[in-house]
Amino acid sequence: MVINDLVTAMQNKDHEALAACFEEDCRLFDYCPSVAGRQNAFLYGRNAIEMSYHNKFMFGGFGMLDPHVVDERTVNFYADYNGTIIHALAQIENCNDGVCTLDNSLIQELVIRPA
After folding, report:
1. Do 80 and 62 meet the contact criterion of CB atoms below 8 Å apart?
2. CA-CA distance, 68 to 102, in Å (whole number)?
3. Phi, psi of 68 (to 5 degrees)
4. Distance in angstroms (rounded) separating the CA atoms of residues 91 and 114
5. In degrees rounded to 5, what are phi and psi of residue 6?
6. What's the CA gap between 92 and 111, in Å, rounded?
7. Under DSSP, is residue 27 helix (H, G, I), strand (E, B) or coil?
8. Dihedral sign, CA of 9, 72, 98, 93?
9. 46-92 per-position pLDDT tens digit
């Protein structure tokens, strides 16, 4: 499932594998950084996700800790924003196949919120 691929990529800090979980024309909205005194992230397109997470992973700005996959669309985890830990929930809002359970499912929209 794409949710498992997403978690693996985040834990391995692999920006290319993370971007490969998304459709070319996708969206990722992250509302957790504001809790850590940073700007929220609104990313549009696979390339933007790859570039943004390349920087976050390379410069120590983000980590996924203790993830628990709730279902095929949801993961509960602790987000490490450069040392500030926030309990977070990542929710796949849309997939290209509508179900997010197929081996070739890709994410169209992902929203990360404080839990």
Report:
1. yes
2. 20
3. -130, 110
4. 11
5. -60, -50
6. 6
7. strand
8. negative
9. 999 999 999 999 987 789 999 999 999 999 999 998 889 999 999 99
What's the rounded Cα separation, in Å, for the pair 7 and 33?
19
Q: For tokens 């390379």, name the residue.
A: 58
H/E element, 48: helix 46-58
The pLDDT tens digits for 26-43 are 999 999 999 988 899 999
Q: Which two tokens stand for residue 78?
A: 């602790």
Rounded to the nearest 10°, the torsion over CA 72, 69, 20, 49 is 110
User: Given the structure tokens 């994410």, which residue do they identify?
Assistant: 107
- H-helix segments, 33-105: 46-58
Determine the Cα–Cα distance for residues 115 and 105; give it in Å rounded to an integer. 25
Length of the chain: 115
